[in-house]
Fold:
Amino acid sequence: MTNIVFITGATAGIGWATALLFAQQGWDIIATGRRKERLDELCKQIQSQYPTIKILPLVLDVRSNEQVQKTIANLPQNWQHIRVLVNNAGLAAGLNTIENADTNDWDTMIDTNIKGLLYVTRAVVPLMIEHKTQGHIVNLSSIAGKEVYLRGNVYCATKHAVEALTKSTRIDLLPYGIKVTGISPGAVETEFSIVRYKGDEEKAKQMYTGYTPLNANDIADTIWYAVSRPKHVNIGDITITCNAQANVYYWDKNQQN
Ligand code: NDP
Ligand code: 8X3
Structure:
């Protein structure tokens, strides 16, 4: 039976690159996200590059528990044997100090990055257990889950929560042999900053100027590394930055590192 990966947030950035890499590795893909036209585009690309790979696109907003539970409960029988779940959907909304922030941004980040990840995990894990798929959950955390920075407050808090959930899920699922991995990237050039700055592409671009940031393929590779270890090996935690970034505070943006 072919391996199946379920990816949240496959319509852009890291999720998109991960879908392509798993397809290249011969896996069938359940690709989810809110933007249907992007899912259609991803399907087309995968079908033309990897014609033997099956892809199931699902329009899914991870913030809706009802939608998540219904969609996953109604998966066709042949798509239920999910081996890997990549909890990737997430965002930073705004970059403000606590007293200036838009509280709607807080809700969006908490609902997506924490509650969304939980809803999807809650729905997928019983399938991994039922079908004995040697399940593996990969949670996208961040260096913002390791340290906090000015104006990062709630985004950092959500990623700290992802760190705690990664560790505690690993304990809960120990009896089932389900692996749980956390991946914590520094700056990756995707749509992340465009979303954070609410469509201000110039401001987003500045984030990545003067150095070579990570790209989505670097993180897809890292996810693949964790997933492709032998059965007895679990990669618990990987922190990855570009060479110009030491941690959330220290950069060298004056050389092409
Ligand atoms: P992108 O903005 O490029 O992609 C984010 C993805 O998340 C999109 O596919 C988007 O799809 C999806 N998404 C957002 N909200 C929802 C929602 N409510 N329901 C379903 N899907 C949603 O960002 P990245 O690829 O960079 O980010 C992926 C993950 O990596 C995030 O968790 C982010 O926090 C984390 N990360 C990113 C870093 C970076 O510097 N880029 C660094 C560290 C971690 P759609 O809009 O179609 O729903
Ligand atoms: C994204 C990386 O440093 O902007 O998670 O928080 S950072």
The domain at 4-240 is CATH 3.40.50.720 (Rossmann fold). The beta strands are 4-7, 28-33, 55-59, 82-87, 136-140, 179-185, 188-189, 214-215, 237-240. The CA atoms of residues 109 and 135 lie 27 Å apart.
